[in-house]
Design brief:
- By secondary structure, the chain is an alpha/beta fold.
- It has a domain of 268 residues: P-loop containing nucleotide triphosphate hydrolases (Rossmann fold), CATH 3.40.50.300.
- Helices cover 45% and strands 9% of the residues.
- Strands 7-6-8-9 form a four-stranded parallel beta sheet, sandwiched between helices.
- α16 crosses α17.
- The longest helix has 16 residues.
- The termini are far apart.
- This is Sulfotransferase domain-containing protein.
- Keywords: Transferase.
Length: 385
């Protein structure tokens, strides 16, 4: 796979992969571009063949360097040089190591009985994943306490996120010399998988196989606050909260843009295999959300009031903070990069409206404008207090 390093060059541009029996992309492109105006029927036929199953084109991702100003802004905030790239489609900022696993993610076989928990980072995915895993494993609290959530429900793109910290990857992959994508592929039985990737960077089979998908969204103001502290803890960021907000509102945050991330799942919310949850609904009425998820996951029977209360107790934020199976502390103690002394917990506050403790009226107004620009008319609305 060719690599270049120029500021305007594409550093990685994988060759398209073609299904057996198809023409090559280059041949099709040359024919299509070379037809004369009187050959429009031929051009139409070629386009039809490209779209057909027999001649389907399996395009993977394109990886580009960031522009100088963009790169410098992220380097200043994260305190890390030459760490990020742009992944297309979608102009998604990702660690450079994503180029090593991106095509493997795209080609990952999907199983119909998979259960995927997806969200933008810091939307409540750890909390929701604990609920989902328990509902999918017959309320086995003993197993949940004795095995790290990061092992029970591996993060698909973990090898890219922790590319310079093999200790985390070793824990999740049980010290096998494999990456996080291979770890997911080799899981036996029903797989519970977590991912923060936007829709277009997920495995290509996702739309056809349609496994169970639970997506969690959180209001952008609280999410950005939590994202700032997450970056301090996990990525050793050095920038201020205001700089984090600038990056977030400019759609330059890693994994972002957040609005595109959420709306891609929102428009699919009526598919039978997708359950779209709001973090704020979980905070306000967790018993109702638990029952909703149980029905979605086909638990097999109605949960008793006692079972629901037991799960609510297990999922209390104070207990989650103290629970080493979910609070990331076992991974932090051996990690050379996670700032265990940063004064920030992986499971922090979880409050609705914490943004008021961090944003003045001017910054809040900027978020309001950004939210209107991107979500108005979509039907997706947020609660902020």
């Amino acid at each position: 796979m060719p690599k270049t390093t120029g500021a305007s060059a594409t550093i990685l541009r994988p060759e398209p992969k073609i299904l057996p029996g198809a023409w090559t992309v280059k041949v099709i492109a040359s024919i299509a571009s070379g037809v004369r105006s009187q050959d429009l029927v031929l051009a139409s036929l070629i386009r039809t063949l490209i779209k057909s199953e027999k001649f389907s084109v399996r395009m993977n991702f394109e990886y580009n360097p960031l522009g100088d100003e963009f790169r410098e802004r992220l380097e200043a905030f994260f305190g890390r040089r030459d760490h990020f790239i742009e992944v297309n489609p979608g102009r998604v900022v990702m660690p450079k190591a994503f180029a090593d696993i991106g095509d493997s993610i795209r080609d990952l076989p999907i199983r119909s009985n998979d259960v995927w928990l997806m969200s933008f980072p810091r939307a409540g995915s750890t909390w929701a994943q604990e609920m989902v895993w328990l509902l999918g494993n017959n309320l086995d609290y003993e197993a949940a306490r004795n095995q790290l959530q990061q092992v029970r429900t591996p993060l698909l793109e973990l090898s890219a996120i922790f590319s310079d910290d093999r200790s985390v990857e070793d824990t999740v992959t049980r010290h096998e010399k494999i990456d996080s994508v291979q770890c997911v592929q080799q899981m036996a039985g029903r797989r519970f998988i977590k991912s923060h990737l936007p829709w277009q960077l997920h495995p290509r089979e996702m739309d056809n196989v349609r496994p169970k998908i639970i997506y969690v969204v959180r209001n952008p103001k609280d999410l950005c606050v939590s994202y700032y502290y997450y970056c301090q803890l996990i990525h050793r960021s050095e920038g201020t909260f205001e700089e984090c907000c600038d990056i977030f509102l400019a759609d330059q945050a890693p994994i972002g843009p957040m609005w595109a991330h959420a709306l891609a799942f929102w428009k699919r919310r009526n598919q039978g295999n997708i359950l779209f949850l709001k973090y704020e609904d979980m905070k306000r009425n967790l018993p109702s959300v638990i029952r909703q998820c149980a029905e979605f996951l086909e638990f097999g029977r109605a949960l008793t009031d006692e079972e629901v209360q037991t799960m609510c107790d297990h999922l209390q934020f104070e207990r989650m903070q103290r629970n080493p199976a979910v609070n990331l502390e076992p991974l932090m103690k051996d990690s050379p990069i996670i700032q265990n002394d940063a004064g920030v917990k992986f499971i922090r506050k979880g409050e609705i409206g914490d943004w008021k403790n961090h944003m003045d009226s001017a910054l809040s107004a900027r978020f309001d404008s950004w939210i209107r620009d991107h979500f108005e008319g979509s039907g997706l609305e947020f609660d902020y207090e």
